[in-house]
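Quarterly update from the structural biology core.
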Amino acid sequence: MLDKVRERVPEYRPRLVEAAGLPEAGVLVPVTCVDNEPEIILTLRSNSLSTHSGEVALPGGRRDPGDVDLSYTALREAHEEIGLLPDLVEVVGPLGSLVSRFGIKVTPYVGIVPDVFDLRPNESEIQEVFRVPVSFFLGDNREMTHRIDYEGRSWYVPSYRYEGFKIWGLTALILVDLMNVAFDARIPLRTPSKDAIPIKEQ
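Predicted structure, tokenized:
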């Protein structure tokens, strides 16, 4: 199934967000494979952080002035947060950019990583690192749906709970984008849901 990631993500033409003047961030969507079962590596952020504390997130962070591009930012931050060496990551391409509720333009990069690497979470930033099988998202095992209003449009984003971890908001939106692009999941994001709970993630 990783072949689908390698084939389809580079061909994807992600939507562009016009956000001139906003600070930027790059995040890594680490995809690995164990016993022919692709998995996504996610983090639980420390409760002591000033933003997104105690939330599930993808490795990543703000672009530093010395970063050559946002792909470099994503790799640098992943190394700092979970000890993933940039040389171990096969970056296959970006997904669509988003603007967070903190006014930061976030660009995700999909990267294929080894099933085993020297995992060293930064305890000041990361409380836990865990993996979720791609099949879990492909089954659209949502706990609820959140409505995110942005630029005059509404997005109906799944919120998942996997082994006690709540995966929602921007992280869930990025993962749904990957599922739809690489694995033909066809998870709808624009279909109204009567039970959707409005949130201001973006």
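The mean pLDDT is 90.
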